[in-house]
Amino acid sequence: MLAVLSPGQGSQKPGFLTPWLELPGAEARLRWWSALAGVDLVHLGTDADADAIRDTARTQPLLVAAALLTAEQLPMYDVAVVAGHSVGELGAAALGGVLSPEAAITLAGVRGREMAAACALEPTSMAALLGGEAEEVVAAIEAYGLYPANRNGAGQIVAAGAVDKLEKLAADRPGGARVRTLQVAGAFHTPYMAPAEKALATVAAGITPADPSKIVLSNLDGAAVNHGRELLQRLVRQVTAPVRWDLCMRTLADLGVTAVIELAPAGTLAGLVKRELAATGVPEIVTLNTPDDLPKARDLIARHGAAPDHEPTPQFRVVVAANAGTFEPAAGLAEGDDISAGQVIGHVATRQGPVEVAAHDGGVLTEWLAHHDDPVAPGQPLARIGGHL
């Protein structure tokens, strides 16, 4: 199983899109997306300096555009799983079939502008804490009146909040963690971004999302989200909610992902995956930074993705668990039964109560992949629904 990852803010580098613009149609595509985003993506990806592309209002649409532009060069129909870090989730939502590229770029432009405006309201910032025991570090962050904005796994937690409180935290070094101040405009993924969330919600309300055509993981809790409307709501909420990339990586492991491609500008997420999954088996990884990396990425998809076939063949959709718990199939439902779109095929028993599991496409219940009282993790496949192309 293969996953494609879309990086978030902080991964950009001056000139990183320059080699991509040599591909046919690439510059025209970026100019069209520039009109939607309200920024010059061609300039930002080629000639702009580090300070210019550090501006939140510019960086966010630039990164989403870069992910979509590079993914267009890949046979994405053979990719099973997509995920993105922070603003990278918008790129992942487009690659997963939930948003059109135009909707993703537009939302990234609004998100970037509104988050930049929210940053200007109060002096806030962020700092990465490296090392230390995770729960002890989180407790210390909260004790200082700060927020654990990113839990990135691999011993990295990002604190966010008022600048004076971050300075006190850095002096304390909770749990022996090293503290590194980040060059960002403010406290992303915290309540300080509430005005931006409200503004983004207003625009998102005019979008009609589709249900995912791939497994799309959410930063909110690492869950695979089955319904487009829910994913869009999560994308809006994520402006003020912490990024749980650690849980996304746990779901990648639970799904049995054997290969990963990180889209341009690649490297950050690949490094986290390597470190976090070292104990359970690191998947094969390709970082896609220039067109020269495309042959390696395409070869990876050929070896780990779905095998293409030009003959009419059964089309299978996998229904996955959105939460951890214990699976209970619907009474009387058996393999071979017809399933309608939206039909509840079972539920996952959690500590908070049962969570219904519904099929987002109709077809035939071809195979149960989990059974009565089986423990399941977020994103774990529960059933296969078959149809025909």
Automatic annotation (TrEMBL):
Pfam families: Acyl_transf_1. Residues 5-326 form the Malonyl-CoA:ACP transacylase (MAT) domain. Keywords: Acyltransferase, Transferase. It is an enzyme of class 2 (transferase). SMART domains: PKS_AT (SM00827). Its EC number is 2.3.1.39. It comes from the Bacteria. Gene3D superfamilies: 2.40.50.100, Malonyl-CoA ACP transacylase, ACP-binding, Malonyl-Coenzyme A Acyl Carrier Protein, domain 2. InterPro entries: Ac_transferase_dom_sf, Acyl_transferase_dom, Acyl_Trfase/lysoPLipase, Mal-CoA-ACP_Trans/PKS_FabD, Malonyl_transacylase_ACP-bd, Single_hybrid_motif. GO terms for molecular function: acyltransferase activity. It catalyses: holo-[ACP] + malonyl-CoA = malonyl-[ACP] + CoA. This is [acyl-carrier-protein] S-malonyltransferase. It comes from Phytohabitans maris.
